Amino acid sequence: MTGERFHFASGNIDKLLAVPKYLLAWLVSWFVPRLPNQWVCGSGIGFGEGALAVARALTAEDPEARVVWLAGDDAEAALAAAEGFEVISRRGWAGFWVTLRAGQLIITHGLGDVNRFGVFGGRVVNLIHGAPLKKLHLDSSVTTQVGGPAPLRALLRRMYLAGTQQIALFVAGSVTAAERLRSAYRVDPGRVLVLGDPRDDALCEQANDPRAAQAARTTVLELLGLASGGIDGAASAWGDRVDAVKLVLYAPTWRDGAPDPAVPSSDEIALIHESLERMGAHLVIRSHPLGGAAYEAALGERVHLLGADLVRDITPVLGAFDSVITDYSSVALDFSLLHRPLVWFAPDLTTYSLSRGLYEPLEVTAAGKVQQTWQATLARLEQVLADGSIARQLAEADARSLAGRFHAHPEGGAALRVIAEIRRLALRDDERIPANAVFFESFYGRQVSCNPLALDREIAARFADRPRFWSVTSERTAVPEGATPLLVGSPDWFAARRLATLLVVNDWLRYGFRRGRHQTVLQTWHGTMLKRLALARSGTSLRTRIAVHRESRRWSLLLSQNPHSTEQFRTSYAYRGEVLELGYPRDDRLADAVAGGERIGVAVATAKRALGLSPETRVLAYVPTWRAEGQPVNTINVHELAERLGDEWTVVV
Length: 653
Description:
CATH class of the largest domain: Alpha Beta
Shape: globular
Number of strands: 24
Strand content: 15-25%
Distance between the termini: 54 Å
Low-confidence stretches: 229-235
CATH topology of the largest domain: Rossmann fold
Number of helices: 24
Largest sheet: 7 strands, parallel
Strand order of the largest sheet: 3-2-1-4-5-6-7
Mean pLDDT: 90
Radius of gyration: 29 Å
Number of domains: 4
CATH architecture of the largest domain: 3-Layer(aba) Sandwich
Structural class: alpha/beta
């Protein structure tokens, strides 16, 4: 990395000027076959991040694989070569050719981590560089900053979207991170998998093995030239006992090319040194590699700079520190794995939240403890560093809670999981999806409900040997016992739709689905229509009419619950196939809850308990129907309604 600042605006101009090169490279890629066991790896920060963890794991696991590190400068190339990797400059013809021939491309920041012109047609895996706190990519307006007319900005946005489509798999450390990445990159849920963050593998080891954390501490002390006495209690270059020294990392995030607002004044520098002396602590400053903030004036006996020239990747040595001070950096989420105190310092919280944007208020992430001055930050640091203090115990509890949200695999091993998933996806569809499968989808995968769920219960009871797959849009969605969830848009999701012998859906199939000869598609729909649908709606465009006709041709059978629905489907969807006017499976439980015209008390009580309500409570359901996008709707004030009904009633929305 160089010391120059990076600005999105200048980077975007370079991207626009390179359009002819992209087009030419895309054409060339059609005629060049890729080698499945050739891997190229690179990272925006240099020799490090998750790409290095994957490269190391792959080299150890498969000596036959060709693993090439694509370097951005001579220093990075020297580090990679010293570890035994084959190294090629990512720029120029050699970098283009090795990228174009590689079957697997591992990146952490963007397509420029390898040769950006050689990515077309390769399996690109973006490991990302930490769980996002600040808004990323297309979620933030700063990403597409460029001077010029609106058409130029529109072209740039399309280029960002096109670049995203080159990435086969994004890797996330948690469901929360995955949801943010799906939003930022505008990709289907199945393009982002929660496999753990490979860059955290070393940190997971340190969290579970004190010896690994102590080794990280030794590494940091040696890098700073301050470990003259080792770690056995002898005097260090600081004049302190090394085992008693409190090491604090300060890691401000990048400000998108703007100056770092946290650089301390002369008075604040004096306060920093005075406070550190009182705490018996040392502050290690690690400004963002893209930032280059000027903290030199703050350096002294207890303040030290740990720049990218000493360690390219800070994550593997985070176990060295007793606490971390940061703002919006994902380093905080990495460090939470250690369950050690975090201090949040964001002097520009208001302006940064409005300009770059955050996925949630920083006060939520920080459990309400955000400082905005050096004085308040140092006071907070002194509280959480005090051995046995209540503040420290609470800070450690906050860190554990944060780790629970952002680390689905605290045991580590993410690099091996990524490699295994890449190899699994290289298998044929029929090697990943068993024969005679049934595919279920309800409301585009947003729910596991309605007629498909009722039919799933029946099929599971009668045909227990049939594999069952459910389309879902989130890992948080629970599927019936024995069924397998498939994230919408994942390779397995597409494969299951192609290979399943029976598909049970209650809405449109989408994604250019074409029914195979071996397949039966049962369209159950999701209710008796009272409002007009599809072709029956006024003002339906030609494009919509064509889409409706195409969709209804995909169905083998259509389920109807009454003659009215049958007639409406025939006209509204121009459906000419077989209609099964047999009633709605989703209503079976309602029918079973009635005997002799009266509700069965046990069934009613069971349903109320399922909602978390007392059997004695009277329940009113308010269920407004869906409105087309943009149509106004006057909803009932449910709070006022509940108040008028009285305490014996509960309103369910």
